[in-house]
Queue: 4 jobs
Job 1
Amino acid sequence: MIEPSHYISKTVKDLKPSGIRKFFDLAASMEGVISLGVGEPDFVTPWSVREASILSLEQGFTSYTANAGLLELREEIAYYLQGKAKVSYNPKEQVLVTVGASQALDVALRAIVNPGDEVIVIEPSFVSYSSLISLAGGVPVSVQTSGEMEFKLQPAELEKAITEKTKAIILCSPSNPTGTVLEHEELVKIAEIIEKHDLLVISDEIYAELTYDHEYTSFVSIEGMAERTILVSGFSKGFAMTGWRLGYIAAHKDFLSEMLKIHQYSMMCAPTMAQYAAIEAMKNGREDVLYMKKKYKQRRNLVVSALNEMDLTCHVPGGAFYVFPSIKKTNLTSEEFAEQLLLEEKVAVVPGNVFGDSGEGYIRCSYASSLEQLQEALRRMQRFVENKI
Ligand code: PMP
């Protein structure tokens, strides 16, 4: 008999399983649960996009593509980024199609991190960042943000966390889990620090399509930042394509060629049929995206006002499909709140502490559900909160 744990790498052993899963598993074992827990659109991928993929299969396009992805797709991505991020990327040398933004983040980190390099993560943060940094051999360093400041990164806090070992910082605007969007002037202030300390940025812009109040500003559009930023994005959120597993990276060609090596050896290429779908999404998906965005905005407005009315105070998040209300009035911890809400009222939310220390005292609610479901969930939450406050 072998003891498998003796063979597992220390880095992997030390990784914490995602705190989100625990609640999903519990919710899945119960009936009648309304889940505001998942971070994915409730919409099905637009039909024309699905159809393009079906057509590619009918035509027999079932082999590998170029490692970097179909050139036509890379051209579409470059064209799209020209409009969205205001930067011209050469599709042949500066764009890499990946298996979701998840793989894009992995490849980006593995390409730049030497053992012991520090990478700064802004908390509350998407749960994968710290683990991916550790897997790449780096050291995650967290910078906290606060609910009072709408979870916006404060440049002075960022600067305090920088050491001679800092290699990069990961930015995520709009943010998962807080929905916070950093505006142009705020990004300029961050860029000044990046430049001063000669750092790289991994800018996770997966929610770029989902901003509701202001025109979106990509970090790469800030002067001097395009060359030192690895832009990560994908189709999962804006185009409702989570299951297709398709994302991309845009970066300086010398970063891209190194990331391509990792991608080539570990992945070969992203799924071919998904790439054909993505070409259609880029070419003709605009109207569908705008339709979904309109729906998300209505839902956001409903959820934010209902939560504030029941004294679960939250700022109006400018993007993504999450709200991050404070539950401090209940005197419960985030975990207690989420667990009791699930067991007593059958509403699943994610406790804020799984996203980092500054998430304690908050919960993440996703509003990627129908208005009817959201209304019912909010009724149940109100009943729950009245009993606790
Ligand atoms: N970044 C963020 C901030 C996310 O929220 C997610 C998905 N939850 C991802 C990356 C990964 O997206 P994908 O489905 O493209 O791998």
Job 2
Amino acid sequence: MIDIRHVSKWYGTFKVLDDCTTHVDKGEVIVVCGPSGSGKSTLIKCVNGLEPFQQGEVTVDGIPVGDRRTNLPKLRARVGMVFQHFELFPHMRVIDNLAIGQTQVLKRGRDEARERALRLLDRVGLRDQADKYPGRLSGGQQQRVAIARALAMDPICMLFDEPTSALDPEMINEVLDVMVELATEGMTMMVVTHEMGFARRVAHRVVFMDKGQIVEDASKEEFFGSPRSERAQQFLSKIL
Ligand code: ADP
Ligand code: MG
């Protein structure tokens, strides 16, 4: 579903991604981790064309992201993205946050969009919050709305960039639970997170990055059992 081949990217003379190669099969969940500044966010943004890259190739469902002829807005509409900060539309009620992409981009009728929005809000446990403005919700609730909003577009895969790292500890699990459920249902997911409990539960593979390189790309069992690189070992010993 997602294929990243020999991707390199520079900011000026600074090489932020250095020959990165990995992939996510359909229905697979990969967790991307590594120290701050190692290039995780940059890599995930290359997948839906939010960041250009100078070398290599990224395809999503066979569509080349770096190709100038690719319709990026159309591709992005099918790739769900959830960021660290919820980025909901603050001036729109929760339900309208979920409906707007459906009506404007997917051209669904208003009733159909609202119905789908309500079903998704139900699924993330927030149906009763549909008419509130995002600012009235807790961080955990807002992040669940952000996930539901992404799902409303019927994405072919989902990208997450540290979706729980801005949350108070007591709200982390309510968001992770939604993500675990998605994973169990077979959603293709690329998840940047340091929540190793999540990785242990649902990841198929773990990618470890350092200084712009993919240092380790291993099955969950291999990664937690005996990471090959010293850098991954050090990282794990610090956060576990
Ligand atoms: P991570 O998500 O792993 O913390 P990032 O992908 O955000 O890492 O950043 C990787 C490196 O690229 C960092 O050193 C960061 O300072 C640098 N960087 C990120 N965005 C820019 C930018 N727009 N211009 C220059 N350097 C950047
Ligand atoms: Mg980041």
Job 3
Amino acid sequence: MLFTSLGLSDPILKAIQETGYTKPTPIQAKAIPLVLEGKDVLAAAQTGTGKTAGFTLPLLERMVQAQKTQAKGKRQVKALILTPTRELAAQILENVQMYAKYLPYKSTVVFGGVNINKQINTLKQGVDILVATPGRLLDLASQKHVDLSKVEVLVLDEADRMLDMGFIHDMKKVVKLIPKKRQTLLFSATFSKEIKALAAGFQTNPSLVEVAAQNKTADRIDQLVHPVDKKRKKDLLVKLINDGQWKQVLVFTRTKHGANKLCEHLEQQGIKSAAIHGNKSQGARTKALANFKSNDVRVLVATDIAARGIDIDMLPHVVNFELPNVPEDYVHRIGRTGRAGREGEAVSLVCVDENDYLRGIERLISQKIKKEVVEGFEVDPSIKAEPINQGGGRGRRGGNQKPSGNRNNTNRNASSTDGEKKRSNSRNRNRKRSRNRQSSKEA
Ligand code: AMP
């Protein structure tokens, strides 16, 4: 199939041509015609499948078609794209602007962690397409800086992640501000029970689209486990980077503190690195990401939430310096490499404390990951498993306990300012009350 057979207008086709994409990815081939027909779509697509273009291209096309019959007036938000994190929101806006390059629409992004006034000013000037995280959007709406009453298309991207992060009430509030008669596109990594319930509340008779088997890791990612003692992980990482002459590596740690410490160590070893996590200001995060993308920084050390939404073309190496305590996060993490069908390598450094996490991951992906001991880094069999420190000083879990695999047990608070902070605190309190809290993850 070619993009030209999808019924997209010339300005959109021209923009696609400039990106260098030759043909639609499977999610695009399936979703674009349905969205063009005006249907609600519930899509399960992994990260890296090209889902952003899967909803943005037809959304733009529908705006082009609608414009032909609508009278010209003040710009109003016609399309709203909700996403869980700031990084993802910024990334989506970049994509929207790239695909809409030859169209007259204005788009912008709003998220917390940065000054609200600039966003208010941009909104005042009129916007057609708005990308937003829920907290900041609600702040702006409650202060009457944004009017959502003319929204025709609502996209909930990474809806599973928004649920995990406790955004359900915010999502419901946002939906109340949008006309009932609308098109709703819901994207999630998987069709979980919770996602189906969400779809039932927000969508009308949605068409289901699924491109990869649930929870299967992308085929083209080579996965490898290096068993290693915890204390020797950082030396092994330095060796892998140096011996393999890796130029661009995304490394995941479980905690913010761990990310900082590892970053310092790599710098001491002469490897240019930057850390990206929730304690860093938005400016610092954006700078770190930009430097990493431009190859000024060789290693980006990230926690799960901070890394969500990172989209770097041809990212060749992902390293799990520590395994995630939530198996699904492994799939998300390694989805950062091998994007849109390219080849990639995901290496996990696994110490004895993490063997249960590894088993949980292998169960989820229904696959045994190849193990390879690196010479000189053989595991000391006398070291016994110890409880794993999840960071954050609370909710610690013993390493000998089974990973729950319950994504709702994690603290995925990515919001950090203004009303978002209050809301997220209350979300956290509610969640704490309502569940048997075991683990806490920070980003
Ligand atoms: P996404 O899943 O939307 O985050 O997209 C993952 C990556 O795939 C991004 O780097 C896109 O630029 C890229 N991409 C999207 N559509 C295509 C396509 N049809 N062909 C090749 N790459 C694509």
Job 4
Amino acid sequence: AVPPPPSSNLRGSWEALRAEAMVCTRCDLHKCATQTVFGEGPLDARIMFVGEQPGDQEDLAGRPFVGPAGQIFDAALERAGIDRAGVYVTNAVKHFKFVLRGKRRIHSRPDTGEIDACRWWVDNERSLIRPPLTVALGATAARSLLHKSVTISRVRGEPLALPDGGGECWVTVHPSFLLRIPEEDRKREEQALFVRDLERIKARA
Ligand code: URA
């Protein structure tokens, strides 16, 4: 019999991984979040984007980057000519971390213990998908992928080596950084720099 191609059960392996992640208790964040928000996208994607963690809307929808930061991300991808349906999108931390203020759930940054605990899932997603380019959106994703804290402005816009040799890592800003800039001119400038980073990444893919 002809042996199956090596990736023939890639979808099955990914689905099994996702199912395991759905009941993850590697850190305490599962206790308050609605659900695990796993990555999504084609398993032969050449670019994997890694965000920080799901926000309020992602936690409810069970999908990454569907809220306000997702809208900024989608608009920038479109300007850079990258089809979101052709890339894999995930997060460094798979559960929403928040503090309650009245009825509102306010985003709270994951700490290094939570980032390090959740690296297990990102590493497994990467080892199944093997993207030649992995993009860290912001400092949390950069820490997860590079195993150390970096200053975004020092490392953005150039390819870095992943510590496990798994292709190139690019670091850029997180879309929610753009959301928070109050001055319109500066916001436009930073959006253009983000799109420029995405265009460079696209050119390498
Ligand atoms: N911010 C992220 O980092 N990821 C999401 O999925 C949503 C907002």
